[in-house]
Design goal:
With 320 residues, the chain is an alpha+beta fold. It has 3 helices and 25 strands. The termini are far apart.
């Protein structure tokens, strides 16, 4: 009788332990399911297998090994080596490509989706650039920024030595970044060897690599002294040539050492050389950097256009 009771007790304990392990495993699985983020961007790396009317078919490896991607107005098509723009009409069957696209995919064969970015070609040396959209930005004391992508799986540090204006990178910015080594951590971490900030719908585009300024899709004719100058953590831009291109009348007061920007409504802004207090209508806006005169040209920080004139400025480290 005792042996029977012992056997029943042992079986009961084993069933209890099995149930406990099963519950624990279920809890772990549930936790893992909850913590796994839903990707906002997915990708396929391979070759362009077919080109159609505003669409391409990519064959390779990735989220889908074959995918038809529709090219839209906002789709970025860039060179894998330097991030420069490539027209859709220049794409060719057989081109190497890493395609980034929406996770909203049709159930057709092959599946279809909307292309976010195409990084085309194979660099002569090193790895191709990779697309990322910024979900979070950490400004660091050394002037660099750490950016987390929207899929939360990559954390990339971008230094001022490889990107002139790290402060221009904000939540929602879209980048092409290059790096050689990435850690196996979660999120994986890397230091960028190169970075390109992809253009937005900007009022002013500044290409620091080319030393050019573009307004309304037209490159400004810069004079010899209309320079772009990196100053601490900002970029100094020539005031007169930009303001006049935007339709302002620029008035210099040598005695007061001020510059007024006027339009049909009167004086819209006042700049005082050496003072970081800028006038906007009848209000004062304080910036970190004061305007300066270099070789007879008034230079103002890029923040003057964004924070005082309320314009959108796109700063890109590459050539046009």
């Amino acid at each position: 009788m005792k042996r029977i009771l012992s056997a029943i007790l042992a079986i009961t304990v084993m069933v209890s332990m099995t149930t406990g392990f099963a519950q624990a495993a279920g809890a772990v699985a549930a936790a893992a399911t909850i913590e796994t983020p839903v990707p906002k961007v997915i990708s396929t790396k391979g070759k362009i297998a077919e080109i159609g009317d505003n669409r391409i078919r990519v064959a390779g490896k990735g989220s889908y090994n074959e995918i038809v991607l529709h090219i839209q107005e906002g789709t970025y098509i860039v060179d894998a080596e330097d991030g420069t723009h490539i027209p859709f009409t220049d794409l060719k069957t057989g081109d190497a490509v890493t395609a980034y696209y929406s996770p909203v995919v049709t159930r057709s064969i092959p599946p279809q989706s909307s292309a976010i970015a195409l990084v085309v070609g194979t660099p002569e040396t090193g790895n191709p650039g990779q697309y990322m959209k910024v979900a979070a930005v950490e400004q660091r004391p050394d002037g660099s920024v750490r950016v987390l992508c929207t899929n939360s799986e990559r954390l990339v540090t971008i230094y001022p030595e490889i990107f002139a204006q790290p402060a221009a990178i904000k939540v929602g910015s879209e980048l092409i970044v290059w790096y050689d080594i990435m850690t196996m951590s979660m999120p994986a971490q890397a230091g960028a060897t190169k970075a390109v900030l992809l253009p937005v719908n900007a009022d002013i585009r500044v290409h620091t690599g080319a030393g050019t300024i573009v307004i309304d899709k037209k490159e400004l004719a810069l004079g010899e002294n209309d320079i772009l100058k990196t100053n601490a953590n900002t970029i100094m831009l020539p005031l007169r040539v930009i303001a006049e291109s935007l339709g302002y009348t620029v008035v210099w007061n040598g005695e007061a050492r001020t510059v007024e920007l006027q339009n049909g409504m009167g004086t819209m802004s006042t700049v005082t050389i050496g003072s970081n207090n800028y006038g906007r209508l009848k209000m004062a806006v304080q910036l970190d950097t004061a305007p300066e005169i270099v070789n007879g040209t008034t230079l103002v920080p890029v923040e003057f256009f964004t924070d005082v004139l309320n314009l959108t400025v796109d700063i890109n480290d590459s050539h046009i």
